[in-house]
From TrEMBL:
InterPro entries recorded: Homeodomain-like_sf (IPR009057), HTH_AraC (IPR018060), Tscrpt_reg_HTH_AraC_N (IPR009594)
Name under which the protein is recorded: Helix-turn-helix protein
Protein keywords: Transcription, Transcription regulation
Matching SUPFAM superfamilies: Homeodomain-like
Keyword Cell membrane: no
Domain HTH araC/xylS-type, residue spans: 169-266
Molecular function in Gene Ontology: DNA-binding transcription factor activity; sequence-specific DNA binding
């Protein structure tokens, strides 16, 4: 759920029994209560209250919440990072180490200073008339604490245009813009200035999945949005790039747990959710 503070969301989940497929975008998530397990490609992550997840790219995930119930639900808050504001902050801070690893996401325990900065930012929800005046400075404080956290070296990559991870981020953006078209790995690798084996290896290191699997997941999420908007299954399949309706149905069921038509019916009744960004 979006809040009155720009780029800040809050999520509450009281039933974590069923796995849910979704995507998480570029940004940071802090768990306030409960815990969450998230499968990104081939990597399973678990983080609980006081833990912070950060990502440089949009990541298709299968996630489910646990240790949350109606009495003590899972609660988390998220921040979508403003690239321009973040880069301006980096320019004003002492040079720090850059990420030597290749992963585009990470989990770390939040420090006391980071928790206090986030709490200070969220406190503006109690006095919404202060948001236009104070939000920018408190967001800057929060981003500064993130720079000082274990996520800092990775997050500094946001403004970088060179390096393997930057090239993979650019490739991901290209795939996202052309997900409904056939994916030629050779073409994308050449755009990234890498050989095909090098590109595949760096892509998997960054996202924990292959380029083709990443594209397939993007297609299925796009199809789900179309189904929720009352598009029939066959038309949705072809619109997102599938040539075989039966293949689409099999892969859709594998990801979302229900055949396209059944899932669409539930989505239109608001029993399911076609939301892209999961907190």
């Amino acid at each position: 759920m979006r809040t009155a503070i720009p780029r800040v969301g809050i999520g509450v989940v009281s039933d974590g029994s069923a796995p849910t497929a979704g995507t998480c975008g570029q940004g940071v998530c802090l768990v306030l209560q409960g815990a969450k397990q998230m499968l990104i490609g081939e990597k399973m992550l678990r983080y609980e209250a006081g833990s912070c997840f950060a990502s440089l790219v949009e990541l298709p995930t299968t996630r489910y919440v646990f240790e949350g119930n109606r009495i003590s639900p899972y609660i988390a808050t998220s921040l979508t990072i403003d690239k321009d504001a973040f880069n301006a902050l980096v320019a004003d801070t002492p040079a720090g180490s850059t990420n030597r690893g290749a992963s585009a996401f990470s989990v770390a325990t939040a420090s006391r200073q980071l928790l206090e900065a986030w709490d200070n930012y969220l406190a503006l929800l109690d006095t919404p008339e202060d948001i236009p005046v104070l939000a920018a400075s408190r967001e800057r404080e929060l981003m500064y604490r993130l720079l000082q956290s274990p996520h800092g070296p990775m997050l500094r990559q946001i403004g970088r245009e060179e390096g393997k991870l930057a090239k993979i981020r650019q490739a991901i953006e290209w795939i996202r813009q052309h997900f409904d078209q056939p994916l030629e790995i050779k073409e994308v690798a050449e755009r990234s200035g890498m050989s095909i084996p090098s590109f595949n290896r760096h892509f998997r290191e960054a996202t924990s999945t292959s380029p083709l699997q990443y594209q397939k997941t993007l297609r299925l999420h796009a199809a789900r949005r179309l189904l929720a908007a009352d598009t029939d299954a066959a038309h949705a399949a072809f619109q997102v790039g599938y040539e075989s309706a039966s293949q689409f149905s099999r892969e859709y069921s594998r990801l979302f747990g229900r055949p396209p038509r059944q899932d669409a019916s539930l989505l239109r009744k608001n029993i399911g959710s076609a939301a892209d960004v999961m907190i």
